[in-house]
Structure formats: C-alpha cells, structure tokens
C-alpha cells in the first residue's frame, strides 16, 4: 500500500505543477499540455472513482460480512495494485514529458 500512496502523491504533485503552469503567464504557449492534461485528468478521475467504490463497500455488503478479518481485508490483489501503479506512472511520465517539451 505504501507504493500506491507514494505514486498517488507523486502524481498529485505533478498535476499541481502542471496546473500552476497552465495558470501562469506562459500558459498560452502550452499547446501540447492542455489536451494531455484533460485526457489524463478524465481517465484518472474514472479510475479513482472505481477504486473508491471498491474501498467503500455498500452498507448491505458490510452487513453480509461476519468477521472483523473479512471487513478489514484489503480488496485489491497484487496484480490490481501493480496495474494501478503502472497507470499512475504512465500519466506522470506523459505529463512530465509534455511539460518539458512545452518549456523548450
């Protein structure tokens, strides 16, 4: 879980830097960044919504579970977490690349 939180924090930092650039005085020069920012933001929002749905089971599902261990069980498998990490890294790398190329 630590790797997942670290990746989310790193991506959040990158998005904040990008957001700062898009609101700055040179924002009109960031031609390549704006479409990527919009598509990344949209895809990540959908993914995070899905993750939240998994992490916050419905009340009915919670009542079905009988033991404390079942209620505390991490809902993601290793492969799921690795897939999420890859998605986050892909978006972070793309945003960083476009930020660097737009600044040239």
Describe the protein in words.
This protein is elongated. It is an all-alpha fold. It has helices at 2-22, 33-55, 59-64, 68-72, 78-102. It is built from 5 helices and no strands. Helix 1 runs parallel beside helix 5 and helix 2 (33-55) runs antiparallel to helix 5.
Would you report the number of β strands?
0
Question: What overall geometry do the principal axes of the alpha carbons give?
Answer: elongated
Query: Can you summarize the main beta sheet?
Result: none
Number of helices: 5
H and E string: HHHHH
| Fraction of helical residues | over 70%
Oligomer: single chain
Overview features:
single chain; 104 residues; mainly alpha; 5 helices; 77% helix; elongated
Summarize the structure.
By secondary structure, this protein is mostly helical. 77% of the residues lie in helices and 0% in strands.
Question: What's the arrangement of secondary structure elements?
Answer:
Elements: H1 2-22, H2 33-55, H3 59-64, H4 68-72, H5 78-102
